[in-house]
Structure formats: structure tokens, C-alpha cells
Design goal:
heterodimer; A: 187 residues; mainly alpha; Rna Polymerase Sigma Factor, Chain: A; Arc Repressor Mutant, subunit A; 2 domains; 9 helices; B: 150 residues; 6 helices; 78% helix; rod-shaped
């Protein structure tokens, strides 16, 4: 679906402003700009493409309901990402911890413990992906936001609603765990 | 992994998220601590591996499904707004209808008859009991009045 030509070149914040005034096509264009990124992020966090679609749909529904609450203090990207993180957390709680343990158990069985998998970038990528899925949800969130989205610590405090010190300590512990899982690939 | 007391801050230092003062002291420490220097190298290699992994590539159909779901949500919201508008319009119509109905049902105030018609009506009411002479006088008087109004 092509973007409305009237909206090409408009900043995200302007699209939000227009959507708030009832311009449905502006909201659709906002979806078009961010859907792929949010889907990929949700898939990285949840490890499941179908769950990612559900969560992203709920994210945009939440964004639509919360249009009036967006005050422009953060970027639209950060705002949408924070809604995504809340929806992801709700989805995890709703689907139960059993599914998460199952996923981590499956990932662990596929990962050679500490030893390098067969040479090849593809295997390394699989090992890195598996190691990330082995992290707890909180640790996976901070790694994804930092390494995939490039958010600053301040932006992560906004998105996750946690203090800056907690962001720092979670990243420190997450990276320690990743180092342990991937030590064969590291100097 | 470095168990040095500075090690906990190396992650933030690697991310460029420490103050200028902390950065200076950490850099001075790393120059003297092989364990922390090695930790920093591992952090850099780890970040490189993870960022190269990147986010998974989602199929175009996934994106399209999300777009369609959003379109459906917007249409449903439009439908809800239309229903609310119709309900409000119906309420206004009902109130107006009740007001009009009550206005019709209320008795009208008596219309004022012109004075000469009142007099004629009064005279006509007593005709049944008056004499013929009197009757003739009244008729003449009434005709005079009517001619005067013409």
C-alpha cells in the first residue's frame, strides 16, 4: 500500500499530530514507516514471528488509543518502541513462563556449550541468536534495544520505565552471560 | 572475565555512557589492568557480533498483515464514532419531538373578539327575550355600527 503522497517528507511528529486530528491516512503512513522495524524487534524479543505480529498489532492499537497522550517529549520512534516493550511484557506474562522456558531449553539444546560450532558465519549467527534467546526477558530487552536499535541509556530508561542505573546493571549482566555462551568466538 | 572493581563500569564505558570524569579514570585504570583491558576487547567483539546479527528479516506478508489489521481497526473506530453520532442525533430528535408534542397539547389562550362583535353577540343572546320594538332598535343600531366600521 503506497504512502499517501501528501505525507511524503513529513516528520513522524507531524504525522502523529495529523492523526490526532482525525487523519486516518496519516496514522496508516506511520504504521507503514515503523511496522517492519517493530516486527523485527518483536521477533528478536519473543523468538516467534506469529507472536511478533500479534504484539505489533497491539502496539499500533495502543498507539492509536494513546495518540492524545503523546506529548512529543520523546521521538515517535522511542514512543512506539516503549509501547512495543509494554505489549511484549504483557504478552510474555499472558503466554506464561512455561513457553519461555521451553524456548530457552530448545535453544540450549541446539547450542554447543562453549565450544565453537562448525566454522561458518551462518553457524556463528545461529549461536549468537540462540545465546540471546537464552537470556532472561529483561536482559534480552536491554541487549536488543542497545545493540539492534542503538538507543542511548536515557532513551532506554524512557522506553523501559526503569532507572538509568538499572539499565546499566542489566546490560552489564546480560553481556556477561552472552560472553559465557559465546566465549569460543571471543578473544 | 575481569573481577576487578572497575569491571562493572566497563560496559557503560564501552557504550560511551559515562561522565567525562569517570571516562578519564577508567581509561587510566584500563591502561594498568590487563584483565579489564581484555574485558573491554571482549565487549567490543561481542557488540560487533550481536549488531552484525541484526534484527531478523520479517517477510513482507507479516508487514502486510499488520497493515491490514490496522486498517480494520481504523474502520471499526470510524463505525463506533458514526454510531455515537447517530445516537446523539436520535436523542436530540426525541427531545424536540417531546417538546413539540407538549406544545401542541397545551390549551390556547382565548382569542380576543373585537369589541363590536362582543356587543353584537351579547345583544343577540338577549334577543330571545326582548320586544319586537327593541329588536328593531338593536338591528338599526348594529347596522349603523357596521356602516361606521366600513
Amino acid at each position: 500500500m503506497p504512502a499517501d503522497s501528501a505525507h511524503l517528507g513529513l516528520a513522524d511528529a507531524e504525522l502523529v499530530r495529523r492523526a490526532r486530528q482525525g487523519d486516518a491516512s496519516a496514522f496508516k503512513d506511520l504504521v507503514g514507516r515503523h511496522a517492519a522495524r517493530l516486527l523485527a524487534m518483536a521477533a528478536a524479543l519473543l523468538g516467534d514471528a506469529a507472536d511478533a505480529e500479534d504484539v505489533v498489532q497491539e502496539t499500533f492499537a495502543g498507539a492509536f488509543r494513546g495518540l492524545r497522550g503523546f506529548e512529543g517529549r520523546s521521538s515517535v520512534k522511542t514512543w512506539l518502541t516503549s509501547i512495543l516493550m509494554r505489549q511484549t511484557a504483557m504478552h510474555r506474562r499472558g503466554s506464561g513462563r512455561r513457553a519461555a522456558r521451553l524456548l530457552r531449553a530448545e535453544a540450549a539444546s541446539e547450542t554447543t556449550t562453549g565450544a565453537a560450532s562448525a566454522t561458518g558465519a551462518a553457524d556463528a549467527r545461529m549461536d549468537v541468536a540462540a545465546a540471546i534467546q537464552l537470556l532472561s526477558p529483561e536482559h534480552r530487552d536491554v541487549v536488543a534495544l542497545r545493540e539492534f536499535e542503538g538507543l542511548s541509556y536515557d532513551e532506554m530508561t524512557q522506553v523501559l520505565g526503569i532507572p538509568r542505573g538499572t539499565v546499566e546493571s542489566r546490560l552489564f549482566r546480560a553481556r556477561r552471560q552472552l560472553q559465557e555462551h559465546l566465549k569460543a568466538y571471543l578473544p | 572475565m575481569s573481577e576487578c572493581e572497575y569491571a562493572r563500569r566497563l560496559s557503560a564505558y564501552h557504550d560511551g555512557e559515562v561522565s567525562d570524569a569517570d571516562r578519564a579514570s577508567l581509561e587510566a585504570h584500563v591502561r594498568q589492568c590487563p584483565a579489564c583491558a581484555a574485558e573491554l576487547r571482549r565487549l567490543a567483539a561481542l557488540s560487533h557480533m550481536v549488531s552484525r546479527l541484526g534484527l531478523p528479516k520479517m517477510p513482507a506478508q507479516s508487514v502486510e498483515r499488520v497493515r491490514r489489521a490496522t486498517d480494520a481497526m481504523l474502520m471499526a473506530d470510524l463505525g463506533r464514532m458514526a454510531k455515537r453520532f447517530l445516537a446523539a442525533a436520535a436523542a436530540v430528535l426525541l427531545v424536540c419531538s417531546v417538546w413539540l408534542w407538549r406544545s401542541e397539547a397545551a390549551p390556547r389562550p382565548a382569542e380576543r373578539m373585537p369589541l363590536w362583535e362582543t356587543a353584537v353577540a351579547t345583544q343577540q343572546a338577549t334577543l330571545a327575550t326582548g320586544s319586537e320594538e327593541q329588536l328593531a332598535q338593536w338591528i338599526a343600531l348594529d347596522l349603523e355600527r357596521k356602516n361606521g366600521h366600513d
